[in-house]
Fold this sequence. Notes:
- By secondary structure, the chain is α/β, with parallel strands linked by helices.
- The protein is 41% helix and 15% strand.
Amino acid sequence: MSRFPKNFLWGASSSAFQIEGGWKEDGKGMTVADYYSFQRSAIQADTSIASDFYHRWKEDIGLMKELGLQMYRFSISWARLIPEGEGRVNQKGIDFYHQVIDCLLENGIQPVVTLYHFDLPYELVKRYNGWADRRCISAFLHYARLCFRHFGDRVKCWQVINEQNLMIRVDERMNLCESDLWRADQIRSQMDYHMFLAHALAVEACHEMVKNGKVGPAVSSTCTYPLTNQPEDVWAAKMNDAMKTLYCLDMHYNGKYPGYYLRYLNERNILPRTEPGDEAVLKKGRMDYIALNYYRTLCASYLPADRTHPRGLRVFRGNEVDFDQYGYFRDERNVNLKTSEYGAQIDPLGLRIVLNEYYRRYGLPLLITENGLGAADTLTLEDKIHDDYRIDYLREHLNACALAIEDGAELMGYSLWSVIDLLSSHQGFRKRYGLVYVNRDDLDLKDLRRIKKDSYYWYQNVIRTNGEEL
Ligand code: BG6
């Protein structure tokens, strides 16, 4: 008997800038993701072609159907619909997503859509410094309403922003330039707040415009273990989760920052500017469910503040995402876990913990929108990819899902990352996640042929048996 409910949704995911290519075709505007991909080292792939989904979507949806997918989670490119981020609408962009959505539905695949996945239209950066300015909120709301109006009759499950809680910490995603760095935390705090307002307004618009629509955030989820059982380390681990993820969910649920986060903003003197009426907007925009992306867990020890390093000050140690914070936490390596070739600490049990924790805290349905293993796959001479390491990873994480369901967590579905190989968010094309291999290298486009990996056949059987055979 299957450990997954009958209506469990089996899916796979992608995002616009990582899969589509066609970055300036048919009137699409440049995005922050495009801009930075072209700035990176000359040995990495950029967004210009990516997996070429923009031209091969029919073939790719055919592969999804053959796989048995029940949902496909993808993002709409804001700048394909509205090239400057606000104002003029690009009909060709709208037509493209109409075709994709119709084709998915014709093939029995439910479209699950993210409005904004790391790809802010670059023109908004030039005009307003992006999310630093409140005008970005109105631009986003206009875009969100456009999507709900055009696609809301067929798309019922929406995510507003992908990983706001992680994106806000990555300078290149927020387009924090060097001249801003001395006041980066102030700007970051303002941008974060504006995105929360935009999120809440989009939730409200979805409820008003999409019949039976459900909408929520897609958070970057993890859980942090204390390095030792000293109370300070336990506190540090809890604060690492609180300050990097839970404050965000608390805001989406309660419409206000939790006390510990306000304390941090106050001690750093970086409280965002607010306006009358904001509070009501934030309260009204409560999420309907929680979409979560899960890859790894973290480990932390306590990092005391001292006279030269005041509480709350951030320290970067090479990795801009996992920063340390004086008076709070220091990220550590967990020697008990295996590490992927790209440095992620692999931890299926961590997923069970996260699912239980989120369900206990918020009591809302959960949907896994990303989970997968990045690896440099090898194509054999017989045109095969034997990615048993990926199968092991996915199997163990699906087992964790089954256990969490038995624990009582309401898990609606599992959508792995990624449906086919696509551009890694910051490490080019060599780092692959797909069930389908795309025959290209970072710089050599080859023939972009699609080749099913062993994991494709394995997942096909998982879906066919509703997870009975993992
Ligand atoms: C998630 C993002 O954080 O992680 C995806 O939502 C990203 O866009 C995925 O691709 C894996 O990260 P990376 O950097 O290995 O591509």
